[in-house]
Amino acid sequence: MSFVPGQPVTAVVQRIEIQKLRQGNNLILGFSIGGGIDQDPGQNPFSEDKTDKGIYVTRITSGGPADVAGLMMGDKIMQVNGWDMTMVTHDKARKRLTKKNEDVVRLLVTRKSLEEAVKHSMGGYPRP
Amino acid sequence: MFCRNQTARATVARGSALEMEIRRGKFRKSVFLDTSQDSDIQKKIDHEIRMRDGACKLLAACSQRDQALEAAKSLQTCSTRIMAYMSELQRMKEAQVMQKVTRRSSDAGPMDDRLPCKGKVAISDLRIPLMWKDTEYFKNKGELHRCAVFCLLQLGGEIFDTDMVIVDRTLTDICFDNTIVFSEASPGFELRVELYSCCSEDDYSAGSTPRKLASKLSSSLGRSAGKKLRAAMEPGPCSPVSNGGAAPLLLPVPSVPGPKYHLLAHTTLSLSHVQDSFRTHDLTISGNEECSYWLPLYGSMCCRLAAQPHCMTQQMMSGCLKVKQCGGDPQTWTKVYAVLKGTSLFCYHRQEDVEANIEPAFTIGINKETRIRASEKDPHSKVQNICISNQYGGEAVTHTLTTDSREDTHSWMEAFWQHFYDMSQWKQCCDDLMKIELPSPRKPAPVTPKQGSLYHEMVIESSDDLSSTVSDILARRMQELELRSQLGTSPTWMSVFEENNAKCAGRTRHCTSRLSGHSPCTPHRLPRSPASPHRCPQLGLLSSDASLTSDSDSHCSTSPCSHHHGWPEPSSNFSLLSSSPSRLRPRTLSLDAKLSTLRGRGYGGGGAFQCPCQPPPSSLLAPLPISSRSPRTQHSTQTTLSCSSSTSSNSSSNSEGSHSPESSEGVPFSRPSPARRSLRNLRARLDPRTWLQSQV
Hints:
The complex is a heterodimer. By secondary structure, chain A is an alpha+beta fold.
């Protein structure tokens, strides 16, 4: 999804609630992220728009909490527990996901197939 | 000096008066003197030597880098402790010798000079800022040079080390969270802080330093203590020295191959640095940029150095007194139980109040401005009074104390003098009690989540056991490479244990077409996947818990199997596979790969097919057209897999060395189909060296 600076971003999102899994001393979610405003957006293989500096899911551990919750590789994370993830640094994104006092993260993620699905179901879905 | 006198005599004649005296003195000494102190130190030395031997063995045995670093750190600490104990032992023995000769009688006499009380010194929240070049820090490019660092703190005879921290250029400071408490420190203490670092990518090589250390130690003991003592007395049968003489036999520090720590910086802190808040101190840096263990230190260190002298925390004196306040209330004596502690004299009504934690009746301040003197002899009583004057605000308030006997008065005066002396020695520590947080016992070291990029997960170190590492990595790769359209959500890892499903239920449209044709074939090859949903049985879990290597079915049951996407024309595959019986026996996955790689080219087709026990499933990413399978895509999956860990075209830089020859082989491989190419590109583009990824 393209992003116009200054304009609100609209996207069709899916709510995904991930329960963190405790492994020893860590709480893990079971996926990897890439991207961030401090990273090179051209390297992102999942983004449509190569200037998109959002946070994308690059890898899902099979059977892990994220997998079970329905997160998919290539998803773009828009929000984590209410915090915006469209304009954050990579490290900030990581930190928002790995807070030790939170057992569950509620993500809003978007992916191309969602847009398509809405478009098909609504027929004549107005393009943003 | 004793030895000089003694050398004036050629020998001590047997049976001579001197010898008898010495012998007698020695015996008396051994009865009165604290040889228990001696044996304490000896025990400590023995303990440390055992620890050091253990660390050496561990170092020699361990294969993981982290373990090796930890073991090397313990080795360093033990060696330093041994050195400290040895020197203390030497000092004690020298003192003994001096005493034995110069004092015929064991009675040392009263000490004229006052000794200040000891105290606790605690150092916490050590933070050492680093000064990376901004290009290194922000761009995050290039090799991540890592060092393992830790601090060694020495005060008196106590040596402690902090936890080890791995430092790379993503850190701005080295932080040590430990709180180290030294219990018996005198006001003139010198706390030496040393920062040791070791390059984390070094080869393990034995250094020459330990040898020098060992030779120094052995020679120093032999030279000073041994000679003196031998000169002092004829080899007495029960001379305590002989124990010390035996020590050098244990001295030579074994030089073990392994990571070696080098001193990077040091500083010494003393009483003037003690404060109740954080302060910055300068570090003296040794080493320069050329050293492998170099880190760009900013040159200072922040920490909180607090001290609690015993006079502030313990009851220095307590007893019954009678107190009268001058000028205030009527001149009556109040009987109290007084406790001298810290900056006050607490006066309780009864002794029991102290334990009961009831508030004292009143408190008389004892601080630097207090004046205490013994007053003139009271004609009414036989004892002297003690007058304590304080300035409260602008007013001078005087309390008079009296006790029941002269000895009590004397001991109270003595206590006050000692207290004043302590306060003058401990200076700023006696203004207020500094808080020292005791480290909570048995706090497990928090495992910092691995921040490194995927690339670091992929690194296979030469010293590691190749088969287990590679199988771990491959298993993880397998998990991530799945069809996106898989939607099964039943507990995926449970399927690992379902061994009897020969048929794939084929829930997704991708599966059915393939699998139905394949069900008849070797059921044992699809032990679990079929019924299982397509999030493949937690191979990842398997590998993390137990090495894949022992799982004979694993190579068959991987997700790709379930969908057969990874399997090229099954018939051809199977025929080949069934023909190679070696396939069926439990074998390490990566060992297969390694073997086949080594003999790879020789095998040609045969060898290549052995590789497929590596989850070929790189194919499973993204909706890929299945139809374009050919036997050779099998190989290309190999190619893909190997490429996934490095840039696609450059096999030489492949970190998964076992696969690299495969990828570079053009001969047995066909031109990969477009689908495979896009997948390969995808994997290549997820190269963490160009685009940072973090695992959460």
